[in-house]
């Protein structure tokens, strides 16, 4: 029995790995992106409450970045796209208000953003059930 690893096999394995990597880069895992969203949203609660504008601006910027990635979805209803754009607008205004150090503006944008999370999820669940 030979102990040598055949180059053809190594090539095949590398090809599969490359294809998987390219595939997932083109179509980001929505669950992963959403868990990242949740992480930033959780950090935000504390930052908003404590008036930590620097942290709010940073987390909001991350959410804006993620909102670009999560426009891809298995669901392309007009309502879904509407929720996605509401989320994005609210996250952008959250970042702006935090940079302007306006705590009232920050609170309002934070609530609007959180509301869009809840409303989009409600819509997704309804669409799944065929409503
Ligand atoms: C435009 C629509 C939309 C918005 C806005 C949105 N989500 Fe989601 N979210 C989804 C979809 C679609 C899924 C996938 C549902 C599924 O596959 O079951 C999801 C799934 C999730 C999950 C479960 C991930 C997993 O698989 O474990 C979490 C957590 C989550 N979202 C958090 C958030 C948070 C926090 C926000 C707001 C900061 C948010 N989402 C905003 C559409 C949205």
Describe this structure in words.
The chain has helices at 7-26, 30-50, 53-69, 78-99, 103-128. It has one domain: Four Helix Bundle (Hemerythrin (Met), subunit A). The relative contact order is 0.10. The chain is mainly alpha-helical and 131 residues long. The protein is built from five helices and no strands. Bound molecules: heme C (HEC). The site of heme C has 18 residues, from helix 2, helix 4 and helix 5.
Helix tally equals 5
The CA-CA distance between the termini, in Å, is 62 Å
For this structure, the CATH topology is Four Helix Bundle (Hemerythrin (Met), subunit A)
CATH superfamily: Oxygen-evolving enhancer protein 3 (PsbQ), four-helix up-down bundle
What average pLDDT do the residues reach?
A: 85
Helix fraction bin: over 70%
Rg over alpha carbons: 20 Å
Class in CATH?
A: Mainly Alpha
Q: In percent terms, what proportion of residues is strand?
A: under 5%
Question: What's the CATH architecture name?
Answer: Up-down Bundle
Question: Can you summarize the main beta sheet?
Answer: none
Bound molecules: heme C
Order of helices and strands: HHHHH
Q: What structural category do the secondary elements indicate?
A: mainly alpha
Which properties best describe this structure?
81% helix; single chain; 5 helices; binds heme C; 131 residues; Four Helix Bundle (Hemerythrin (Met), subunit A)
